[in-house]
Amino acid sequence: MSINHMSKLASGAAYGAAGSAVANGVLTRLSPDEWSAVGVIAGIVLALMTFAINAYFKRKVSLAQIRALEQRGYIPSDKLGEE
């Protein structure tokens, strides 16, 4: 083994130990019931974000389809919004 390789190995071990110490400190700070609440709140937030992103892109696709139909003459642009 070269010195450079051993130095990289030692650095990786040091970073791994430091990361493990930080993770242990974070994970033991909250009780299991508190982690459960964090999980529920995170799940709700992620579900709402997914809904918002999905709605944004669905609207974007719908508007692109409407523009494409207008350009091809299938929908007169002055008739949009009237029913």
Task: Describe this protein's structure.
By secondary structure, the protein is an all-alpha fold. The protein has 2 domains: 1-30; 31-83. Helix content is 81%, strand content 0%. It contains 2 helices and no strands. The longest helix is centred in the middle third of the chain and has 40 residues, at 32-71. The protein is elongated, with a radius of gyration of 27 Å.
Order of helices and strands: HH
Mean pLDDT figure? 87
How would you classify the helix and strand content by structural class? mainly alpha
Determine the fraction of residues in helical runs and give it as a percent range. over 70%
Number of DSSP strands? 0
Q: What is the radius of gyration computed over CA atoms, rounded to a whole number of angstroms?
A: 27 Å
In percent, how much strand structure appears in the residues?
A: under 5%
Low-pLDDT windows of residues: none
Number of helices: 2
Distance between the termini: 78 Å
Q: How many distinct folded domains?
A: 2
The main β sheet shows up as:
none
Shape: elongated
